[in-house]
């Protein structure tokens, strides 16, 4: 989802999650330059934080059920809160639920809610608010691309998805402050799953006032969520301004306002930061990092994100496996990492990044081999001139002209195939991928927590809403289904097998595993980087000093 980030784990112990983050911070050759010490601890008079939402012209998916992309999630995470939240190490921590009980068979979760939680207009949030929200995400008329997948383990979800009922039997409000969830099978990653924004309560009153789809156009001043902020104003294509939620149940933010500007071009955002227009900047391009890495506050960390290509398997010539394999074998990923990314990324032979549970760092995938590439292509098209026209479409904010042109040249040199380039603004690009009209495209896929489920189930299953390339492989589907019926090492082994099937048959073509870079000057307190990018916590520790 472009990446939906999703960010979703499985059988991970808290100890293992901590180890994963340590491993992630060690891989990819990431570097970090700490800020120079700030001698002033005096809070600034004007507690207004200004920062760019880099890589988008606007917030495209504000409804948590719509599967927000990473850019949209920057706003979503400020407005909405839920039962649990992810800490800096991506572990689930209590939020609106103060505690929970789990049955002996690990299928029934009983959550105990705080008694002081409300939406930003003071409307109480009860267990019924969760029943409404989780059921809504499964309704056919909502057309959520993520609800059916994220809630697949909840009892009764399939009946709601199929329109048989509007009652989600596995989710019950035992009373106003007690929510009971029954699963169809033990799901050890369930608490981590609940950190995803789709599970956060929505204000039924606001949705019924404006309608299932139009309510997102009326968020300014509306009580749509229960997070630390509410939307003060939204100037589409320019910026979104946030004010503290007066009814927030948690520790209050020290900020008086947050101004989030939409900046589609990352280099433009960096220049604006240098000109003093923003208090921090992130999403730095590899070229800008060469200059930024000597600046105070620069930091770079590996993130749970990879660059991948997808092929529409229902469009020629990519309906032939050999053609997809040929395009994969024609790419020199090591050269791209060095000359285009300046060694700020790790060349990817696998879909799942190294350091993650179930990762296969030593699996070669489809290595660079021009002779093999030509042979594969000729096996499908003996006369290369007969290959149908090919257009490679990509989001302008995620693929630089240098990267697109380098790929184009590799396919020309190593396959003798001319590929047309089509750069598209991110929001428009995401709309096209949803409609599956792109012949050959790019995905920057990220996840919310470290588990193979997010990389494979959500994107490559035949029935996945995020399967932008219409890739379908019965053996893959069956292997993933088997994995979800097991646990521990056996589950990870099955996921490893499924990933190899996806790589060898080019369900996705991995290019690199990403790092993210930012400049967070010492005057900014409480903002850090983790393996999901910028991390603001619950915002209570975020403030500016002079």
Automatic annotation (TrEMBL):
The keyword Signal applies. Residues 92-466 form the Solute-binding protein family domain. Belongs to the bacterial solute-binding protein 5 family. The keyword Transport applies. This is ABC transporter substrate-binding protein. The lineage of its organism: Bacteria, Bacillati, Chloroflexota, Ktedonobacteria, Ktedonobacterales. Keywords: Signal, Transport. Gene3D superfamilies: Dipeptide-binding Protein, Domain 1, Dipeptide-binding Protein, Domain 3, Periplasmic binding protein-like II. Signal peptide: none annotated. It is found in: Cell envelope.
